[in-house]
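Lecture 7 notes: from sequence to structure.
We start with the chain below.
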Amino acid sequence: MRGKEETRAKILEAVGEILSEEGFGGIRINNISRRAGVDKVLIYRYFGDLPGLLREFASRGDYWPSMDGLVEEVGEGRRPPRAADLAVALLKGYMRGLRDSPTAQELLLGELVSRNELSEASARKRERQGADLIEALVGATPDARAVDVTAMAALLSAGLTFLMLRARTSEAYLGIDISSKEGWGRIERAMEELVRSVLGADGR
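Predicted structure tokens for the same chain:
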């Protein structure tokens, strides 16, 4: 049993490595088999087929930025927590996590240009996570219900995602150096100003 789980883990790890280094085009059975160092027969035995493997990979979700604990962390010592503080923390966590995850970036690119088992499963996982975060934000801060938090989050997260992906092929956008720490510091500050202007300068 242990050998089986170790082999499954190696195969799933190989998918993530290939995705980060080669993108969607590298996701092929033979390529995964070589990277994992296992016979491709084992891929079919443990996952059924390539779509089954990709669904399993997407369901794990450990490639995606984790927001675990952010709502609780921001709310510590403050009852009720401030809506703006929570929203800013979630968006910063998303942005920083995405910048540190080449696999997540490749999945986002794949969702934009192709439709397959992996991109669809990844999109569903991301939508569920996003809905959970919005629910946590509104549930923890009733004052957030006064605005359309979901639409605001969609606009800001989409903008941040675009800039993140744009940075892969361009150093600047509208004169902002999106390849540097300083440039992203400007973006974070602007994002925070926008959030607080909607939810209140004092965080409510």
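Points to note: Residues 70-199 form one domain. DSSP finds ten helices and two strands in the chain.
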